[in-house]
Amino acid sequence: MSEPANAAFSSSKTPSKRWLTRGVLGIGLTSLFSDWSHEAATSILPAFLAGLGAPAVALGIIEGVSDGLSSFAKLAGGFIADRPRWRKPAGITGYLATALTTFGYAFAQSWPVVLLLRAFGWMGRGSRGPARDTLLADAVSLGQEGRAFGFERSMDTLGAVLGPMSATVLLGMLGLRGVLRWTLLPGLVAVLAFVFLVPSAKRAKSDGAAVVPRSFASSIAQLPKSFWYFLVGVFAHGIGDFAPTLLILRASQILTPRFGVGRAAAISVGLYTFHNIVDAAASYPTGALGDRIGKRGLLAAGYLIGVITYAGFIFEPPTIPVLVVLFGLAGMHDAFQQSLEKSLAAELLPKAVRGSGFGVLAAANGVGDLVSSVVVGALWSAVSPAAGFLYAGIFAATGAVIILRKPVMAKA
What we know:
The structure is a single chain. By secondary structure, the protein is an all-alpha fold. It folds into two domains: 19-202, Growth Hormone, Chain: A (Up-down Bundle); 225-405, MFS general substrate transporter like domains (Growth Hormone, Chain: A). Helix content is 80%, strand content 1%. The chain contains 14 helices and two strands, in the order αβααααααβααααααα. The chain has helices spanning 3-7, 22-51, 57-81, 84-104, 111-138, 145-182, 184-197, 216-221, 225-238, 245-293, 295-315, 320-348, 354-382, 385-405; strands at 9-11, 201-203. Helix 2 packs antiparallel against helix 7 and helix 3 packs antiparallel against helix 13. It starts with a helix and ends in a 7-residue tail after the last helix.
């Protein structure tokens, strides 16, 4: 694709040399408050469903259906994000849908209603992602993507820390339904931050004519080979990158014989909170370092941190100090992955199909998360936890090797 075609679509203002632009700040604040809202609800969702008389399997159905629909919505959202004038409206609609459906849980009287609301909200969450990521990439100059995506990841993870903490504080005062109603406040703040701080994307005047894909198939056809090579490594890592709730489960199993069920559960939640704090603290420095020394090798190193983490759960003695180190490494692993995968993709993708590329990347990660959690859970139950961690480590190492071996180069 020619340079004029690549440049034909851009944000309304030329990105400045300063990486913390209004758009980056707006998207960061939006991620903070949106995650604050829905993570507060997610943290009390099991207790809320139990109060509705829902069976244990209901939570699995709700999460599985919602995550599956979200993955398909990411692909559709990517195609939408290739239309500059649709990017900001798509983001606003997605964030508003998540805020309103999360608030709607408070009025549900049965778990199928929660399923319907969660599914609709997660479709909005999935569809907004490529538009947000494309606007974020356009908000900074070439070579600053790592800082921008690292900052957004830090703010997002900070929201994941504040959500459960605020729910715990408010639960005694407001009750379960009261906390769910309260989530509307940070949810709407997220929408307002996106509306007023994030610049719209507009057609820029240029000498060349931009080739806007007319169909999803033509969008996919325009994705460069270097991006597909990169995606193979991402997917290889992803099918071993299981949900962090399994780390909480393993910590609880390790600690229960010594501390009992209740204290073990409390310590495990504390370890997960530490994991999220490390994730938030490491995301921006990781992205900034990637801008300086190169993202490909640093991303592979992040995948290898995952290998070390999984090996630690297999070989190290199960003491609290060891668990603190392992949960910290897991937080670092997530920070490297989330900050660098998207920022490297932004370098590889032509602007005309950047939205579709982000959608494909998100969908690949979503499918990988589903496969990994199911397979690791099955190995865990049928063989042993060590078998699940071994599987995860093998694929994390495979992803690192592919990322390093394949020629990942920025677009011309």
